[in-house]
Amino acid sequence: MNMVRLIYASRLAPHAGPRDVQIILETARANNPAKGITGALCYNDTYFLQCIEGPRTAINQLYTSILSDERAADSTLMEYSDIHERIFENWSMAYVKADELTEQIVMKYGADRHFNPYEMNGEQALGFMINLAREKDRYLATVIKK
Predict the structure, then answer these.
(1) Residue 52's closest CA among 74, 68, 36?
(2) Residue 143's pLDDT is what?
(3) What CATH code is carried by the domain that includes residue 117?
């Protein structure tokens, strides 16, 4: 199977709100497993940074759908590449609110202490998403042990 990874940034459209983000997540989590898509979404009140990975055709179709989604605006493709393994193999769609991020990860890949994916290049966005996955996995492992 030919797999790809796609990372993009976008903004929440002015008419959209937190409920729309919840619907996006619910839809992704319901539909992605059957399509072989995994990934993660990081969001604050303004910006999305999303990484999706899986079969090339499924990822291309999903991104085409994302581009036509009226809840998001100013989509910018940050990375698109062939992959030999997934980063988010355990996640139909992991979700991290920007206020859950550690200052360390934001400073490591961003221009300042505020999450803004438009200030990242593709390599920074990929590093950010990899670290995001590690933080989420560590957090959940801690919660499950309790």
Answers:
(1) 36
(2) 60
(3) 3.30.70.100
pLDDT(119) > 90: yes
**Residue type, position 95, single letter:** Y
Q: What's the pLDDT score for residue 90?
A: 84
CA torsion angle for 140, 88, 49, 45 (degrees, to 10)?
-30
Whether the CB-CB separation of 53 and 38 falls below 8 Å is answered with: yes
**With contact defined as beta carbons under 8 Å apart, do 37 and 92 qualify?**
yes
More confident residue, 107 or 7: 7
List the one residue out of 11, 13, 10 whose CA is nearest residue 63. Answer: 10
Contacts of residue 88, Cβ cutoff 8 Å, sequence gap at least 6: 38, 39, 40, 51, 53, 94, 133
The whole-angstrom separation of Cα 29 and Cα 26 is 5
Q: Could you list the residue range(s) of the whole structural domain that residue 44 is in? A: 3-145
